[in-house]
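quick one before i forget lol
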Amino acid sequence: GSCGSWRAVLKRGSFGMPKRGNLRKKTDEDEGEDAGAGAEEAIVIPTEKTKSKKKGKGKADGGMAASLLSFDDEEAGADTFQITKKPPAGDGAHRVKKKSMRAPDALKPDAEEKKGGGEYSIERLRELASAQKTLTARPAEHMDHNAPANGRSGAGTREPIAFMPPPPRPGRDDDFGIPDAAAIKAAKAKREAARAALTSAADYIPVPGAEVDVDMDAGEDTAWEDEQLRKAMSGGGGGGAPRAVVKKQPSVDVLAGGRAALESLRNGVARLEVSRQNAKNEAARADAALASSEATLKNHEERLTAAGERYKYMQEMRDYFRDLCECLREKGPIIDELEEHAQRLHEHRGLASKRESEGNLRDEATEAEAGMEAAQAALMRGASQAEAIAAATAAAEGAIAARFDSLRPNLDEFGRDLNLAERQAAEKRAAVRRSRREEELRMNNLGEEDDAEDAVEVELFYKGLEDATEAASQVMRDAGADFSSVPPIKARSEEWKRRFPRAYKDAYMPESVPQLFAPFARLELLSWSPLYPETRTSPGSAAAPAIDAMRWYSDLFDYGMVEGDDTAADDGDGNLVPTLIEKLVAPVVEHAVNECWNPLSLAQSTRLAGVVKEMTVYLEPTECEAMRRILSSVRARLSEMVDRGCDIPAWAPVVTAAAPMAESYARRRFGVAVRCLRVIMAWNGVLPQSELRSLACDRVVAGCAAPRLRLLLARPGECLAAIERLVGVLPPDWLTGSARVVRDVASTLGQAVRSQPEAHGAAAVEADAGAGKAVPVAALANILATLGDNDESAAVANLFGLT
């Protein structure tokens, strides 16, 4: 019979073969495109399963052959259809229906092809079946549905013949079959063009859940698919009723979609704003990080540069101070030798002064005692006063020679008699005393002046000190300008401290600086003495040069201080000057106190007290061990002075009147006691006042001066002069307690004057001419008022008409 178009058979075969792939082979490009772009899959839905029947033999073979070539009824009886599975929408993109891959003209059936079809024979089909060995059975849908049922199944079994679509007939342009590579490429180009047109539309934000199907198969494709769907729904021959397949069309609510799109736009704008702000913040943080990195880099560069400069500078400082230390190490022994020489000069002069003072006191005591014994002996024999005076004078003059005559020769290693040298020195001192004796008798303050020193010893001292000073000035002469004085060293050290304070401190410079400047201070201290005047022409009462007047002090006073700022509390350089005073000045002063100081010398005591008082400004006695030692030595020396230098003989004036040397000695010893009081008061403000008051009032006034004052009541005028000397030295508030004896003696003297007013009038005082018997009543009234005896003072003033 007539068979349909082979194209219809091909289409039915593609729909009707169960679990088989489409006979149309895809090219590599089509397979790549479908795999890459998520191509639609062809789903084959069979409407009816054909049960296999036993086929008969003989005619059954012919019937099968006839049915294989009959395609008339299979066009309308197609029982399968193909639908398109839509790929899932991703990332909000619209799902687009894939365009059909069939050629446009293949959708229209060809009438001529329906009529033709006689070219297919059983041999041809068998050749095709042998070529397609993978196909094991021919679908029942490709058989002739109009053939009788028994024709399809014979008594005997027969292998099914695999169906292969016939190749296109050569020479015909309208022959449509399996699309070739050009058709596939054209279909792909059309699909890509439609996709590009869709993506080039206006920008919009996809609404999640909304599906828009774009039918890219227009015209004949759509008609052909609708026709195939109708055929599938109508059912094929021998098959049951086909299942209805309804294609759902998406319902799009334009208003709801617009609202959703608007809301999505707003949310998108909000997210974009947040993203923009985050990006802005990130940019700001990046800028800040960049600026911080640049600052850090710059800081590291500056630190590296500073480290290089510091290293170079530190090398220079190391070399400089190494050379300086080497220079000072070489000069150290020279400075030590000069200091020892200066100390020996001070010790020798102090020893000579002490020896001279003690020699004078010893000689005077010897003469006075000899004269006193001679005078007493003469008076006891009944001799006159003139005879007693002559005997006392002769005994006193021969006492010195008699003392040395009784001594044996004392020879040294050179055979020299030391006693002879002492005798010559004593005779020399005696000649000096005789020359000033008449002058001393007229002196009211006898004994208060310092004892004269040996002129030869004084000259030797200054000559040696000048030599030491000259040698000190030459010590640094061979050193360079940067090492020979304090200013260049100070400038280098301060520059180091100013530029690199941490390195300055780490190098222990605050602890080392005193040792660097100490040699220069020691050289200047060689010419400085806390006991003696600077030169031989300086007045003996001149104070010692102040410490703050020295050159090293003025150079180092402001060491380490930043201009316009005070020295920090924890800055070790702030104690540079006190440290130098403690390490350099204090040893000199301590040596002077222990070895050179004569406490009976008022000039030396005044200078030394001034130096120690200035040192207490920089060194606290409770914290500085050197100051404690100095003050302890001073207390010991003052106590020794009181014990040995304030002894006053208790000789009656009646006897001393016949012994002039004894009288002069007694007056001198009272003057020495007054001098001791002046020495003690020189230390007021340095030593505790209670200690000084105990020494002055309890031991000197009450223990030594009071007996002398009571003896002098026999000479009222001389007694008043002695009281005035004591009151002139001590503060009035000190003359209480144990020193109240002075007030008692003054009150007794006032009563004696009031008992004999005619002996103490103005005429009597003028006639007395310093003999010491008449009392000036005005001076007596003032002394009584000063000592606090106002009643006696008023009584004396009223008696003599004083206002």
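fyi The first helix runs from residue 6 to 16.
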